[in-house]
Amino acid sequence: MARTDQTQAAVLGALSVLPMTGYALRQEIRDTLGHFWSESFGQIYPALAELERRGLVERRGGDRTGSSTFAITAAGTARLRELLAEPAQPAPPRNPLLLRLFFGRQLGPDACRALVLDARSRAEEQLARMAAVRREPADDPASTADRPYWLLTVSAGEHAARAQLAWADEALAALDELRSDDGADRPPSSRPTPEEHP
Amino acid sequence: MARTDQTQAAVLGALSVLPMTGYALRQEIRDTLGHFWSESFGQIYPALAELERRGLVERRGGDRTGSSTFAITAAGTARLRELLAEPAQPAPPRNPLLLRLFFGRQLGPDACRALVLDARSRAEEQLARMAAVRREPADDPASTADRPYWLLTVSAGEHAARAQLAWADEALAALDELRSDDGADRPPSSRPTPEEHP
DNA sequence: GGGCACATGTAAGCTGTTACATGATTAA
DNA sequence: TTAATCATGTAACAGCTTACATGTGCCC
Question: Which CATH class name applies to B6-85?
Answer without folding.
Answer: mainly alpha
